[in-house]
Amino acid sequence: MREAYLRDALYSIGDAVIVTNVEGRINLMNPAAERLTGWTESEARESPLEQIFQIVDEETRATLESPVARVLREGAAVKLSRRTVLVRRDGRTVPIGDTGAPIRTATGDIAGIILIFQDQTAARADLRSAYQAREFAENVIATVREPLLVLSRDLRVISANRAFYQMFRTTPAETLDRPIYELGNRQWDIPELRRLLEEILPQNTHFDGYEVTHDFEHIGRRTMLLNARRVQHSDEFILLAIEDVTERVRAEQRLHLHLRRLRALRTIDRAIISSLDMRAVLDILLEQVTLHLHVDAASVQLLDPHTQTLTFAAGRGFQSLPMQPMTLSAGEGYAGRVAFDRRLLFIADLRQEYPETFTSPILQREAFVTYCGVPLIAKGQVKGVLELFHRSRLDPDQDWFDFLETLAVQAAIAIDSVALFEAMQRSNAQMVLAYEATIRGWAQALDLRDRETEGHSQRVTELTVQLARAAGLSDEQIAHIRRGALLHDIGKLGIPDAILRKPEPLTEEEWAIMRKHPDYAYMMLSPIEYLRPALDIPYCHHERWDGTGYPRGLKGEQIPLSARLFAVADVWDALQSDRPYRTRWKREEALEYIRSQAGKHFDPDVVELFLKVIGEEPSSRVP
Questions:
Q1: Strand partners of residue 378
Q2: Cβ contact 323:404 at 8 Å
Q3: Rounded-to-integer distance, Cα 537 and Cα 522, Å
Q4: What are the backbone dihedrals phi and psi of residue 401, each rounded to the nearest 5 degrees, phi first?
Q5: At residue 580, does pLDDT exceed 80?
Q6: Does 570 reside within a domain?
Q7: What CATH number has the domain bearing residue 498?
Q8: 440 in a domain, yes or no?
Q9: What CATH number should be reported for the domain holding residue 21?
Q10: Do 392 and 369 touch, CB atoms closer than 8 A?
Q11: Is the pTM higher than 0.85?
Q12: Does the bond joining 604 to the residue before it have cis omega, within 30 degrees of 0?
């Protein structure tokens, strides 16, 4: 009964079971063993175990010792090698796992052997895949060019690749199995990294692109880009990839710096182009200097080439500027020394200079530590000095000095351009005054030659200007109208005195000659560019609204507006003046005549404008 129960149990379990006697002959083999070996129990019974249960090494194919022999020899349970393969009856092989144990009697003697084994095809495939995956991962880690750490769940270093050891100049002994925060004199103990690894990473499984700039042991201040992944395998671990982006960050910073400096130069260029006010240009220049060279204050002193003195022109960043312009001779003080030597002067620490050699109230009052002065040279001449001040020590690099030189060139160009413009303005103003005086002289000479009443040209000019302002013309247009009105009869210089000063009425032939004076005016004035915009009045003031005037018979709005305005003013002044051949008209008579000529001699709109101006102005101011 007991034996039948045990047989039923062995036949029911899923593992393959073979039972032998002490001689190694098979007594029992369950169905699972039949399937694995390819032998039936009836065929295998009483057969030597080695005939039915042939096992070899998976790699070498060498026959392995029978587990029965090992159990009998050792007197205890044994396990097969992990590389054991069972050769089936049909010659096919099956990887197996095996345990052999002695069957003992009540007295402790060995009565037989029991073998329990399983098909490990799937298990070994999984194991092989896991091994290959691990080997692949380890090879990847080893060959990655960027430093890589493998951390355990508690943030201890499990593995590090060669790139990590090389970059951080450390060894496996100093790295492996140590918390990441303790590496390299705690160089990775960074609060933000702690937060990412301990708070963000567990929630999000990864973080990317965390940039850390730090003073690392052995390699100094570097910028690292960190990427982390939480990986779930047989156990949880963390991959931490480290990329040294120091040079890239520095290159980007240099690029941004150059772009900012280019914008600064562009700002100064625009100031030079759009504003020719010296103070405005210098203010923009000093703003850019202090902003982009990172100094506390800056100033410009201009050099007078005649007296060889420097005068404070503009400053920025000072706690107090001098109430009176400060003047230094070339060679005096730091600025004078820069102008005299025509080269840059840089003093990193003024406290180390001899104060009795170069004293400066502004340096003492402002507590500056660093000084830099650079000459502003344009066209080979010193235009001034650009001075920079800082209240702590500066140790700039060559790039800083190069940009300062560029700014100095811009400043010199700006100062030279503004000075040249101001000189041109003075010259133009003097030339305009000379032109205007000449024109007034011509007008007076014409009045005398034509025997006009004294001041006729000046009076008619002023009235024409009043009408032009009332018509809404610009100041520039009015300036040309003023000149044209003063020279309205300049063409009469070409008329013989016999005709111009004849007391009797002129003949038709003489009138034909007289009517040429507008053409003469055009020929005389058109070659003079300055007076060309003033030609409309001398050339067209005898044209009539109805087209019956001369020299071209223009009609209506074909006549320039300035000539239409002048025509009314000219007739009004003539009627209001005593002449050798008649006395002046009464005001109301003259006004009535002007009204009657609207649409004939005069532009009706101009007549209306004239009457409005005359009505609004006191009679003492209007002729």
A1: 381
A2: no
A3: 10
A4: -65, -35
A5: no
A6: yes
A7: 1.10.3210.10
A8: no
A9: 3.30.450.20
A10: yes
A11: no
A12: no
Same domain, 164 and 64: no
How many Å apart are CA 85 and CA 64, to the nearest integer? 9
Report how many domains make up the chain.
4
The C-alpha atoms of residue 300 and residue 384 are separated, in whole angstroms, by 7
Q: Where are the alpha helices (DSSP H) in 31-178?
A: 31-37, 41-44, 49-52, 67-74, 121-143, 162-168, 172-175
Tokens 């054991």 found at: 84
Q: What does the block give as tokens for 220? A: 């100094």
| 111 is a domain residue | yes
pLDDT in tens, 487-498: 888 888 888 888
Among candidate residues 1, 38, 44, the one with its CA nearest the CA of residue 20 = 44
Amino acid at 594: I
Q: Identify which of 42, 27, 41 has the alpha carbon closest to the alpha carbon of residue 114.
A: 27
Which residue matches tokens 């197996």? 96
Q: Which token pair is 270?
A: 């625009």
State the pLDDT confidence band at 137, using cuts at 50, 70 and 90: low
Ranges assigned E (strand) in 143-194: 148-152, 157-160
- Within this chain, do residues 461 and 577 fall inside the same structural domain, yes or no? yes
Tokens standing for 390? 């800082």
Report how far residue 342's alpha carbon sits from residue 331's, in angstroms, rounded to the nearest whole number.
10
Do 280 and 405 sit in the same domain of this protein?
A: yes
Dist. CA 28–CA 36, nearest whole Å: 14
Average pLDDT over residues 308-326: 75
